[in-house]
Amino acid sequence: MIEFGKDHSPAWLELMSAYQIFRARLFDWSREPDQVKQRDLLLEERWWRIFYAAPRCGMKKPSSWFRKN
User: Are 8 and 17 in contact (CB under 8 A)?
Assistant: First the structure.
């Protein structure tokens, strides 16, 4: 892992640490079988369509998911 200088803020150091961990996990995931990656990406695409694309296309978000009890 890359070492950062002490001149950076604690928040920056924490962010860069998390980013390095993310990159390592992404590399691990990239070595998974293609079927696993395709399923994961399909699930992510469906989530993206519900929360981002649908409202822009005039579709409403499922409001029951956001009700506070």
Answer: no
Q: What is the largest CA-CA distance in the chain?
A: 49
The structure's pTM equals: 0.57
Q: How many CA atoms lie within 13 A of 33 on its CB side?
A: 3
Q: What is the DSSP string of 36-48?
A: HHHHHHHHHHHHH
- Cα separation, 17 vs 25, in Å, equals 13
First and final C-alpha spacing in the chain: 44
Encode pLDDT of 15-39 as tens digits.
989 999 999 999 999 999 999 999 9
